[in-house]
Amino acid sequence: MKKTLTILALTLTSTFNVNSQSKSSIAINEPAVQDLYITPKMASKLINIELTKLNIYNVYDEYDMAEAIKSKPEISQGCYGLNCLTLLGEQLKVNYVLSGSLDKLGNKIAISLKIIDVNTKSIYKTTFREFDNQEAELQRMIEIVLREMNGLENAKETVEQLSFKNEVITSNNVGKINNSGPRIGYAYLNGSLNEFATRNTEQGGLDIAPAVSMIGYQFEKQYVGTENFSALFETIINITGLEQSKFMPTIAFMNGFRFGKAGWEFAFGPSFGLKRVSDGFFDKDNTYGKGANAYWSDEQYSAYDREKYNGANPYNQVSESTEYYNYQNAYNGDMTKSVYPSSSNLDNNGRVALSTRFVVGIGRTFKTGGLNIPVNIFYSSVKKGSMIGLSVGFNIIKKKEAINSRN
Protein backbone atom coordinates (compact mmCIF):
# COMPACT_ATOMS: atom_id res chain seq x y z
CA MET A 1 0.00 0.00 0.00
CA LYS A 2 2.77 2.39 0.93
CA LYS A 3 4.56 1.53 -2.29
CA THR A 4 1.42 2.38 -4.30
CA LEU A 5 0.97 5.75 -2.59
CA THR A 6 4.63 6.56 -3.15
CA ILE A 7 4.36 5.78 -6.85
CA LEU A 8 1.17 7.89 -7.12
CA ALA A 9 2.81 10.83 -5.38
CA LEU A 10 5.88 10.60 -7.61
CA THR A 11 3.62 10.46 -10.69
CA LEU A 12 1.65 13.56 -9.67
CA THR A 13 4.83 15.44 -8.83
CA SER A 14 6.36 14.47 -12.14
CA THR A 15 3.24 15.50 -14.03
CA PHE A 16 3.14 18.86 -12.26
CA ASN A 17 6.82 19.47 -13.00
CA VAL A 18 6.34 18.58 -16.68
CA ASN A 19 3.33 20.88 -16.97
CA SER A 20 5.17 23.65 -15.18
CA GLN A 21 8.20 23.24 -17.40
CA SER A 22 6.03 23.13 -20.55
CA LYS A 23 4.62 26.58 -19.83
CA SER A 24 6.41 29.61 -21.22
CA SER A 25 7.59 32.15 -18.69
CA ILE A 26 6.37 35.73 -18.87
CA ALA A 27 7.19 38.90 -16.95
CA ILE A 28 4.89 41.89 -16.59
CA ASN A 29 6.33 45.34 -16.91
CA GLU A 30 4.40 48.25 -15.39
CA PRO A 31 2.15 49.72 -18.09
CA ALA A 32 1.80 53.42 -18.88
CA VAL A 33 -1.30 54.91 -17.22
CA GLN A 34 -2.89 58.23 -18.15
CA ASP A 35 -5.77 60.10 -16.44
CA LEU A 36 -6.95 57.08 -14.42
CA TYR A 37 -7.14 56.75 -10.67
CA ILE A 38 -4.88 53.67 -10.49
CA THR A 39 -1.10 53.81 -10.53
CA PRO A 40 1.10 51.83 -12.95
CA LYS A 41 2.03 49.52 -10.06
CA MET A 42 -1.65 48.79 -9.32
CA ALA A 43 -2.33 48.21 -13.00
CA SER A 44 0.60 45.76 -13.16
CA LYS A 45 -0.81 43.79 -10.23
CA LEU A 46 -4.26 43.58 -11.88
CA ILE A 47 -2.65 42.28 -15.07
CA ASN A 48 -0.64 39.75 -13.04
CA ILE A 49 -3.78 38.47 -11.31
CA GLU A 50 -5.78 38.05 -14.52
CA LEU A 51 -2.87 36.54 -16.46
CA THR A 52 -2.24 34.02 -13.70
CA LYS A 53 -5.90 32.99 -13.79
CA LEU A 54 -5.52 31.97 -17.42
CA ASN A 55 -3.00 29.27 -16.40
CA ILE A 56 -1.15 29.60 -19.71
CA TYR A 57 2.17 31.07 -18.57
CA ASN A 58 4.51 30.92 -15.62
CA VAL A 59 3.96 34.51 -14.51
CA TYR A 60 6.80 36.42 -12.85
CA ASP A 61 5.66 38.82 -10.17
CA GLU A 62 7.21 42.10 -9.03
CA TYR A 63 9.50 40.37 -6.55
CA ASP A 64 10.95 38.12 -9.24
CA MET A 65 11.68 41.18 -11.32
CA ALA A 66 13.08 43.41 -8.57
CA GLU A 67 16.65 42.11 -8.74
CA ALA A 68 16.91 42.34 -12.53
CA ILE A 69 15.52 45.86 -12.57
CA LYS A 70 17.88 46.92 -9.79
CA SER A 71 20.90 45.74 -11.74
CA LYS A 72 19.83 47.56 -14.90
CA PRO A 73 18.81 51.15 -14.05
CA GLU A 74 17.98 51.85 -17.70
CA ILE A 75 14.99 49.48 -17.49
CA SER A 76 13.73 50.66 -14.13
CA GLN A 77 11.51 53.46 -15.47
CA GLY A 78 9.83 54.31 -18.74
CA CYS A 79 10.52 50.92 -20.27
CA TYR A 80 7.81 50.62 -22.91
CA GLY A 81 9.64 50.17 -26.21
CA LEU A 82 10.65 46.93 -27.94
CA ASN A 83 14.39 47.16 -27.20
CA CYS A 84 13.96 48.01 -23.54
CA LEU A 85 11.37 45.26 -22.96
CA THR A 86 13.61 42.75 -24.75
CA LEU A 87 16.51 43.72 -22.47
CA LEU A 88 14.26 43.26 -19.44
CA GLY A 89 13.30 39.80 -20.65
CA GLU A 90 16.93 38.81 -21.19
CA GLN A 91 17.82 39.93 -17.68
CA LEU A 92 14.97 37.86 -16.26
CA LYS A 93 15.64 34.93 -18.60
CA VAL A 94 11.95 34.67 -19.53
CA ASN A 95 10.33 33.79 -22.85
CA TYR A 96 8.00 36.79 -22.97
CA VAL A 97 7.48 40.25 -21.51
CA LEU A 98 4.06 41.89 -21.34
CA SER A 99 3.49 45.63 -21.23
CA GLY A 100 1.12 48.24 -22.63
CA SER A 101 -0.98 51.26 -21.70
CA LEU A 102 -4.25 52.19 -20.00
CA ASP A 103 -5.59 55.59 -21.04
CA LYS A 104 -8.71 57.58 -20.32
CA LEU A 105 -9.62 59.35 -23.56
CA GLY A 106 -12.64 61.59 -23.22
CA ASN A 107 -15.62 59.39 -22.36
CA LYS A 108 -13.85 56.07 -22.94
CA ILE A 109 -10.99 53.95 -21.58
CA ALA A 110 -8.51 52.51 -24.07
CA ILE A 111 -6.42 49.47 -23.08
CA SER A 112 -3.55 48.32 -25.27
CA LEU A 113 -1.43 45.30 -24.29
CA LYS A 114 1.45 43.64 -26.13
CA ILE A 115 3.62 40.59 -25.55
CA ILE A 116 7.26 40.74 -26.64
CA ASP A 117 9.03 37.52 -27.71
CA VAL A 118 12.43 37.85 -26.05
CA ASN A 119 14.14 35.27 -28.28
CA THR A 120 13.06 36.83 -31.58
CA LYS A 121 13.07 40.38 -30.22
CA SER A 122 9.69 41.02 -31.86
CA ILE A 123 6.06 41.58 -30.93
CA TYR A 124 4.43 38.20 -30.32
CA LYS A 125 0.84 39.30 -29.65
CA THR A 126 -0.96 42.62 -29.34
CA THR A 127 -4.54 43.59 -28.56
CA PHE A 128 -6.35 46.92 -28.32
CA ARG A 129 -9.87 47.56 -27.08
CA GLU A 130 -12.00 50.57 -26.14
CA PHE A 131 -14.31 50.46 -23.12
CA ASP A 132 -16.99 52.63 -21.60
CA ASN A 133 -15.74 55.08 -18.97
CA GLN A 134 -16.26 52.82 -15.93
CA GLU A 135 -13.00 52.95 -13.98
CA ALA A 136 -14.35 50.74 -11.20
CA GLU A 137 -14.42 47.86 -13.71
CA LEU A 138 -10.77 48.09 -14.85
CA GLN A 139 -9.98 44.56 -13.67
CA ARG A 140 -12.80 43.11 -15.81
CA MET A 141 -11.59 45.17 -18.76
CA ILE A 142 -8.06 43.77 -18.36
CA GLU A 143 -9.51 40.27 -18.14
CA ILE A 144 -11.38 40.77 -21.43
CA VAL A 145 -8.26 42.04 -23.23
CA LEU A 146 -6.03 39.21 -21.94
CA ARG A 147 -8.55 36.49 -22.81
CA GLU A 148 -9.03 37.95 -26.27
CA MET A 149 -5.27 38.20 -26.74
CA ASN A 150 -4.86 34.51 -25.93
CA GLY A 151 -7.77 33.28 -28.04
CA LEU A 152 -10.13 32.58 -25.14
CA GLU A 153 -13.85 33.33 -25.21
CA ASN A 154 -15.26 36.14 -23.09
CA ALA A 155 -18.68 36.38 -21.47
CA LYS A 156 -20.77 38.24 -24.07
CA GLU A 157 -22.90 40.02 -21.50
CA THR A 158 -19.86 41.41 -19.68
CA VAL A 159 -18.26 42.55 -22.94
CA GLU A 160 -21.49 44.27 -24.00
CA GLN A 161 -21.88 46.07 -20.68
CA LEU A 162 -18.34 47.43 -20.72
CA SER A 163 -17.89 48.12 -24.43
CA PHE A 164 -17.66 51.69 -25.61
CA LYS A 165 -20.86 52.60 -27.46
CA ASN A 166 -20.00 54.44 -30.63
CA GLU A 167 -22.73 57.08 -30.48
CA VAL A 168 -24.15 58.95 -33.46
CA ILE A 169 -21.59 61.44 -34.70
CA THR A 170 -22.15 65.06 -33.76
CA SER A 171 -20.06 66.97 -36.26
CA ASN A 172 -18.62 70.37 -35.44
CA ASN A 173 -19.52 71.55 -38.94
CA VAL A 174 -23.21 70.94 -38.30
CA GLY A 175 -23.28 71.75 -34.63
CA LYS A 176 -25.02 74.59 -32.88
CA ILE A 177 -25.96 77.16 -35.50
CA ASN A 178 -27.23 80.70 -34.93
CA ASN A 179 -29.39 80.70 -38.05
CA SER A 180 -31.79 83.63 -37.71
CA GLY A 181 -33.55 85.80 -40.27
CA PRO A 182 -36.73 87.65 -41.36
CA ARG A 183 -39.97 85.92 -42.34
CA ILE A 184 -42.92 87.10 -44.44
CA GLY A 185 -46.12 85.25 -45.19
CA TYR A 186 -49.83 85.28 -45.87
CA ALA A 187 -52.59 83.39 -44.11
CA TYR A 188 -56.29 82.69 -44.58
CA LEU A 189 -58.61 82.81 -41.56
CA ASN A 190 -61.19 80.11 -40.88
CA GLY A 191 -64.06 79.59 -38.45
CA SER A 192 -64.35 82.05 -35.57
CA LEU A 193 -61.35 84.02 -36.85
CA ASN A 194 -63.01 84.45 -40.24
CA GLU A 195 -66.25 85.63 -38.61
CA PHE A 196 -64.37 88.10 -36.37
CA ALA A 197 -62.39 89.50 -39.30
CA THR A 198 -65.43 90.07 -41.53
CA ARG A 199 -67.80 91.29 -38.78
CA ASN A 200 -68.50 95.03 -38.94
CA THR A 201 -66.87 97.33 -36.43
CA GLU A 202 -70.20 98.33 -34.83
CA GLN A 203 -70.53 94.75 -33.62
CA GLY A 204 -66.93 94.53 -32.43
CA GLY A 205 -65.42 93.03 -35.58
CA LEU A 206 -62.37 94.05 -37.61
CA ASP A 207 -64.25 94.58 -40.88
CA ILE A 208 -61.32 93.33 -42.99
CA ALA A 209 -60.77 90.64 -45.59
CA PRO A 210 -60.33 87.15 -44.00
CA ALA A 211 -56.72 86.91 -45.21
CA VAL A 212 -53.81 88.76 -43.61
CA SER A 213 -50.14 89.33 -44.20
CA MET A 214 -47.49 88.38 -41.66
CA ILE A 215 -44.07 89.87 -41.19
CA GLY A 216 -41.64 88.90 -38.49
CA TYR A 217 -38.28 87.56 -37.44
CA GLN A 218 -37.19 84.05 -36.51
CA PHE A 219 -34.46 83.30 -33.97
CA GLU A 220 -33.16 79.76 -34.37
CA LYS A 221 -30.79 77.68 -32.26
CA GLN A 222 -29.77 74.10 -32.95
CA TYR A 223 -29.17 71.91 -29.91
CA VAL A 224 -28.45 68.69 -31.82
CA GLY A 225 -26.65 68.48 -35.14
CA THR A 226 -25.68 65.45 -37.20
CA GLU A 227 -25.11 64.82 -40.88
CA ASN A 228 -28.77 64.00 -41.58
CA PHE A 229 -30.69 65.28 -38.59
CA SER A 230 -30.93 68.49 -36.58
CA ALA A 231 -33.08 69.45 -33.62
CA LEU A 232 -33.65 73.13 -33.04
CA PHE A 233 -35.48 75.65 -30.92
CA GLU A 234 -37.24 78.52 -32.69
CA THR A 235 -38.63 81.82 -31.44
CA ILE A 236 -40.78 83.63 -34.01
CA ILE A 237 -42.02 87.20 -33.50
CA ASN A 238 -44.82 88.15 -35.91
CA ILE A 239 -46.92 91.21 -36.68
CA THR A 240 -50.13 90.46 -38.57
CA GLY A 241 -52.53 92.62 -40.62
CA LEU A 242 -50.39 95.68 -41.34
CA GLU A 243 -51.68 95.88 -44.94
CA GLN A 244 -55.21 96.28 -43.55
CA SER A 245 -54.21 98.90 -40.95
CA LYS A 246 -54.20 96.37 -38.12
CA PHE A 247 -51.43 95.68 -35.63
CA MET A 248 -51.68 92.19 -34.14
CA PRO A 249 -48.38 90.99 -32.58
CA THR A 250 -47.69 87.36 -31.60
CA ILE A 251 -44.72 85.35 -30.39
CA ALA A 252 -44.30 81.61 -30.96
CA PHE A 253 -41.95 79.13 -29.28
CA MET A 254 -41.43 76.05 -31.41
CA ASN A 255 -39.44 72.85 -31.32
CA GLY A 256 -38.27 71.86 -34.78
CA PHE A 257 -36.62 68.95 -36.57
CA ARG A 258 -34.69 69.08 -39.83
CA PHE A 259 -34.13 65.91 -41.85
CA GLY A 260 -31.68 64.95 -44.57
CA LYS A 261 -29.53 67.03 -46.83
CA ALA A 262 -32.63 68.30 -48.66
CA GLY A 263 -33.54 70.32 -45.56
CA TRP A 264 -37.08 69.10 -44.87
CA GLU A 265 -38.43 70.56 -41.65
CA PHE A 266 -41.20 69.93 -39.14
CA ALA A 267 -41.95 72.20 -36.17
CA PHE A 268 -44.64 72.67 -33.55
CA GLY A 269 -45.29 74.75 -30.46
CA PRO A 270 -47.46 77.34 -28.74
CA SER A 271 -48.07 80.91 -29.85
CA PHE A 272 -49.03 83.81 -27.57
CA GLY A 273 -50.57 87.20 -28.23
CA LEU A 274 -53.23 89.64 -27.06
CA LYS A 275 -56.89 89.71 -28.00
CA ARG A 276 -60.05 91.58 -27.06
CA VAL A 277 -63.05 89.63 -25.88
CA SER A 278 -66.46 90.22 -24.36
CA ASP A 279 -69.33 88.10 -23.07
CA GLY A 280 -72.24 88.09 -25.46
CA PHE A 281 -74.26 86.19 -28.04
CA PHE A 282 -75.04 85.96 -31.76
CA ASP A 283 -78.61 86.84 -32.71
CA LYS A 284 -79.18 83.91 -35.08
CA ASP A 285 -82.86 84.68 -35.74
CA ASN A 286 -82.61 88.49 -35.86
CA THR A 287 -84.67 88.68 -32.69
CA TYR A 288 -83.35 92.15 -31.85
CA GLY A 289 -83.36 93.72 -35.28
CA LYS A 290 -79.67 94.13 -36.19
CA GLY A 291 -79.69 91.30 -38.68
CA ALA A 292 -79.25 87.56 -38.62
CA ASN A 293 -76.14 86.40 -36.69
CA ALA A 294 -75.44 89.93 -35.45
CA TYR A 295 -73.20 89.99 -32.40
CA TRP A 296 -74.45 91.50 -29.16
CA SER A 297 -72.22 91.94 -26.17
CA ASP A 298 -73.93 91.70 -22.79
CA GLU A 299 -73.27 95.40 -22.29
CA GLN A 300 -74.89 96.25 -25.63
CA TYR A 301 -77.88 94.14 -24.82
CA SER A 302 -78.25 95.72 -21.37
CA ALA A 303 -78.21 99.20 -22.97
CA TYR A 304 -80.76 98.03 -25.55
CA ASP A 305 -82.94 96.60 -22.81
CA ARG A 306 -82.85 99.80 -20.75
CA GLU A 307 -83.60 101.97 -23.73
CA LYS A 308 -86.51 99.93 -25.07
CA TYR A 309 -88.11 98.38 -22.02
CA ASN A 310 -86.40 100.07 -19.09
CA GLY A 311 -85.86 96.59 -17.73
CA ALA A 312 -89.52 96.07 -17.02
CA ASN A 313 -92.46 94.11 -18.40
CA PRO A 314 -94.17 96.37 -20.98
CA TYR A 315 -97.32 94.40 -20.41
CA ASN A 316 -98.41 95.49 -16.95
CA GLN A 317 -101.73 93.75 -17.07
CA VAL A 318 -102.33 90.07 -17.37
CA SER A 319 -103.25 89.54 -20.99
CA GLU A 320 -104.21 86.61 -23.09
CA SER A 321 -102.89 88.31 -26.21
CA THR A 322 -100.51 86.52 -28.61
CA GLU A 323 -97.95 89.27 -28.02
CA TYR A 324 -97.95 88.62 -24.27
CA TYR A 325 -97.46 84.90 -24.70
CA ASN A 326 -94.60 85.53 -27.13
CA TYR A 327 -92.98 87.70 -24.44
CA GLN A 328 -93.39 84.99 -21.81
CA ASN A 329 -91.87 82.33 -24.03
CA ALA A 330 -88.96 84.49 -25.15
CA TYR A 331 -87.90 85.97 -21.83
CA ASN A 332 -89.37 83.67 -19.22
CA GLY A 333 -90.81 86.73 -17.58
CA ASP A 334 -87.40 88.50 -17.31
CA MET A 335 -86.81 91.22 -19.88
CA THR A 336 -83.21 91.77 -18.67
CA LYS A 337 -82.07 88.44 -20.16
CA SER A 338 -81.49 87.54 -23.77
CA VAL A 339 -83.11 84.53 -25.38
CA TYR A 340 -79.58 83.36 -26.27
CA PRO A 341 -77.01 82.02 -23.81
CA SER A 342 -74.00 84.28 -23.21
CA SER A 343 -70.42 83.15 -23.93
CA SER A 344 -66.98 84.66 -24.40
CA ASN A 345 -66.31 85.86 -27.98
CA LEU A 346 -63.81 87.96 -29.90
CA ASP A 347 -64.83 91.60 -29.69
CA ASN A 348 -62.60 94.50 -30.72
CA ASN A 349 -64.49 96.73 -28.26
CA GLY A 350 -64.04 94.32 -25.35
CA ARG A 351 -61.47 93.72 -22.63
CA VAL A 352 -57.86 92.70 -23.28
CA ALA A 353 -57.01 89.01 -22.69
CA LEU A 354 -54.20 86.57 -23.44
CA SER A 355 -54.52 84.74 -26.74
CA THR A 356 -53.04 81.24 -27.07
CA ARG A 357 -52.73 79.11 -30.17
CA PHE A 358 -50.99 75.92 -31.24
CA VAL A 359 -48.89 76.12 -34.38
CA VAL A 360 -47.70 73.30 -36.62
CA GLY A 361 -45.46 73.87 -39.62
CA ILE A 362 -43.84 71.79 -42.34
CA GLY A 363 -41.51 72.91 -45.08
CA ARG A 364 -38.13 72.84 -46.70
CA THR A 365 -35.02 75.01 -46.66
CA PHE A 366 -33.49 75.70 -50.05
CA LYS A 367 -29.81 76.57 -50.10
CA THR A 368 -27.79 78.63 -52.50
CA GLY A 369 -24.22 79.26 -51.40
CA GLY A 370 -24.31 80.58 -47.85
CA LEU A 371 -27.95 81.72 -48.20
CA ASN A 372 -30.80 79.65 -46.79
CA ILE A 373 -34.38 80.18 -48.03
CA PRO A 374 -36.91 78.44 -45.76
CA VAL A 375 -40.39 77.87 -47.21
CA ASN A 376 -43.06 76.63 -44.78
CA ILE A 377 -46.75 75.84 -44.73
CA PHE A 378 -48.22 76.39 -41.28
CA TYR A 379 -51.48 75.76 -39.45
CA SER A 380 -52.50 77.69 -36.32
CA SER A 381 -55.52 76.54 -34.33
CA VAL A 382 -57.72 78.34 -31.79
CA LYS A 383 -61.11 77.53 -30.29
CA LYS A 384 -63.59 77.10 -33.17
CA GLY A 385 -61.17 78.69 -35.63
CA SER A 386 -57.85 78.39 -37.40
CA MET A 387 -55.33 80.05 -39.67
CA ILE A 388 -53.49 78.39 -42.56
CA GLY A 389 -50.78 80.06 -44.54
CA LEU A 390 -47.41 80.15 -46.28
CA SER A 391 -44.21 81.65 -44.88
CA VAL A 392 -40.99 82.47 -46.73
CA GLY A 393 -37.75 83.83 -45.34
CA PHE A 394 -34.02 83.99 -45.76
CA ASN A 395 -31.05 83.77 -43.46
CA ILE A 396 -27.30 83.40 -43.47
CA ILE A 397 -25.34 81.18 -41.07
CA LYS A 398 -23.68 83.74 -38.82
CA LYS A 399 -22.09 81.56 -36.19
CA LYS A 400 -21.21 77.93 -35.54
CA GLU A 401 -20.28 76.41 -32.21
CA ALA A 402 -19.26 72.78 -31.82
CA ILE A 403 -21.72 70.56 -29.97
CA ASN A 404 -18.81 68.87 -28.18
CA SER A 405 -17.04 72.04 -27.07
CA ARG A 406 -16.25 72.39 -23.37
CA ASN A 407 -15.83 75.53 -21.33
Can you offer a commentary on this structure?
The chain is of the alpha+beta class and 407 residues long. The protein folds into three domains: 14-162, Rossmann fold (3-Layer(aba) Sandwich), CATH 3.40.50; 172-278 and 348-401, Porin (Beta Barrel); 288-339, no CATH class. It is built from nine helices and 19 strands. β16 (371-382) and β17 (385-393) form a beta hairpin. The two termini are 80 Å apart. 25% of the residues are buried. The model is unreliable at 13-20, 171-176, 311-325 and 403-407 (pLDDT under 50).
Index terms:
single chain; 407 residues; alpha+beta; Rossmann fold; Porin; 8-stranded antiparallel barrel; 6-stranded mixed sheet; 41% strand; disordered C terminus
Distance between the termini: 80 Å
Number of strands: 19
- Which strand order do you get reading across the main beta sheet? 8-9-10-11-12-15-16-17
SSE succession? HEEHEHHEEEHHEEHEEEEEHHEEEEEE
Specify the helix fraction band. 25-40%
The overall number of domains is 3
Q: What is the global morphology?
A: rod-shaped
Overall mean confidence score, pLDDT: 82
- CATH C-level class of the largest domain: Mainly Beta
Structural class: alpha+beta
Largest sheet: 8 strands, antiparallel, barrel
What is the architecture of the largest domain at the second tier of CATH?
Beta Barrel
Supply the number of helical segments.
9
Q: Which percent range describes the beta-strand content?
A: 35-45%
Ranges where pLDDT stays below 50 over 5 or more residues in a row are 13-20, 171-176, 311-325, 403-407
- What Rg do the Cα atoms give? 42 Å
CATH topology-level name of the largest domain: Porin
